[in-house]
Amino acid sequence: MKASVKGSICGIIAAVSYGTNPLGALFLYEQGINANSVLFYRFTLAVAILGIIMLATGKPFRINRRQAAVTMILGILFGISSMSLFTSFYHMDAGIACTLLFVYPIMVAVIMALFFHEKITAATVLSIVLALSGIGLLYKGPGNVSLSGAGVALVMLSALSYALYIVLVNRSSLGMPAVKLSFYVMIFCVLTITACSLFDDKGKLQMLTTPSMWGFALMLACVPTVISLIMMTLSVKYIGSTPTAIMGALEPLTAVIIGITVFGETFTAQLATGIVLILAAVITIISARSIHWRWHPHLRHWKFK
After folding, report:
1. What is the rounded CA–CA span in Å between residue 166 and residue 73?
2. 184 touches 67 (CB < 8 A)
3. Among 280, 231, 269, 264, which residue's Cα sits nearest to residue 138?
């Protein structure tokens, strides 16, 4: 299997997995568990799962100083991104927050272009335009709805932190397996959340008291954390930061599908159009990376390569 195909598959799995975040978070919020506590259990359980995977596969836990420093930065960035997003759920609908979060591919493309001289191709621009157009249609609220300023600011901080995380994963060249990298990132995420909870009177860590609470916390640890992080790391390795970020368009799409299938939301023509545009964006960026056309002067036509 070509690297571009592997990367595209991993990117799709990562995006769909990460899009399940609100499903577990909103249930725990309804049970009175605050955002810091939700994230603490999410990341702590993720560390345990990743540690078990490393033991089972015989991967060494030893890392050097550079790897420790970079994974610490990655953990802080991912922790800030998660805290900002989960806190924004208090200020606006989770679906809107996840939709706004998708500005991060644009941030990734701009950062890579400004600081690393990555060329912004026509396919990249077209994919971003298609994806943003589709995501705009996924929001079904009336046009005069005013969004919370605090909520928008939190989502923008989350998007920027996540964009920086993706870029750093791409540029750091740590030479670590995805599972090992995710393991240490999650450790520093736990430390970041714990430190923040010490200075937040309303965000003190709470205990999970029922099996359903633990079940949703475990779901958050497995699906939008372990699976998403490993797949995202592999996708960045195979196809780069910008295409991986653009395929994140499937995150809000996942939220819509969950809303329709789990919560019985209405499937409208507007939603259908938005979904088609997002899928078109993903197909465009995948095609640009995995399909090439070559001019053969003797044949006098373009030939699929």
Report:
1. 12
2. yes
3. 269
Give the pLDDT of residue 300.
44
| Domain boundary assignment for the chain | 3-292
How far, in Å, CA of 220 to CA of 111, rounded? 29
Mean pLDDT split into 10-residue runs, the chain, 305 residues: 86 90 88 94 95 93 93 95 92 80 83 83 84 76 64 92 90 85 94 92 91 95 91 87 81 80 75 83 71 48 42
Q: 9, exposed or middle or buried, with CB in 10 Å at 0-12, 13-18, 19+?
A: middle
For 26, counting Cβ atoms within 10 Å of its Cβ (0-12 exposed, 13-18 middle, 19+ buried), the class is: middle
Strand partners, 294: 303
Q: How far is CA 159 from CA 54, 80, 101, 146, in A?
A: 30, 10, 5, 20
What is d(CA 262, CA 140) in angstroms, rounded to the nearest whole number?
17
pLDDT digits (tens, 9 = 90+) for 263-289: 676 777 877 888 888 888 877 876 675
Residue 140's pLDDT is what? 57
pTM flag (> 0.90): no
Residue with the two structure tokens 């991967």: 59
By the 8 A CB rule, do 281 and 130 touch? yes
88-91: long-range pairs with CB below 8 Å, 24+? 88/151, 88/154, 88/155, 88/158, 89/22, 89/25, 89/26, 89/29, 89/35, 90/35, 90/151, 91/148, 91/150, 91/151, 91/154
Write the CA distances from 260 to 22, 94, 135, 149, 256, integer angstroms: 14, 15, 16, 28, 6
The string over 146-156, giving b where at least 16 C-beta atoms fall within 10 Å of a residue's C-beta and e elsewhere, is: ebbeebbebbb
For residue 302, the model assigns a pLDDT of 42
Pairing of strands 293-296, 301-304: antiparallel
